[in-house]
Design a protein that fits this description.
Layout: H1 2-30, H2 33-38, H3 49-63, E1 67-69, E2 72-75, E3 87-89, E4 97-103, E5 109-112, E6 134-147, E7 153-167
Parallel strand pairs: 2-7
Antiparallel strand pairs: 1-3, 4-5, 4-6, 6-7
Amino acid sequence: MEKKKKLAVIIGIVLLILVGAAAIFALIHTKKGTDAEEAGGYVMGEENYQQIMDQMESDVREGYFETYMNTEWTFADGTAMTEDAVLGNSPNNAKPIRCEVLLADTEETVFTTGVIPVGAQLPAFKLDTDLDAGTYDAICMVYLLDEMSDGTYKDYSSAGFNVRLIVEN
């Protein structure tokens, strides 16, 4: 079971990289001339092909991140702390992350973290929403953060992972 969880996280990261590469590819092929250069886009020609390819590789690497988590979280009731949820920011990352958990069927946000520093793991936590007893399919959205000059953070890139919330009573 643990191998399936790791595989799901790896697949999510690979998809994130592919989406980033596709976005960069689209940017290259839709912006032309001086307007693209002023907008921070790429204008590829024979004379700058390698420079553009190097920049694209750097941009994709910049948006890449790892997280570690399990995918089934149990709560004794809708207001209780979970003792089995694992959610952390890999020490291999260069940037902090934040997370949001949304119910899959309604997209209601039921849990939001603050900033999770590189290498940190959330301690036991409770949901922000008091859910009735039951099993809920949810999506844990993980956002890589970019620190702004004023000390605030903005979302840089993201990936979503399926989780199951089990509320026992």
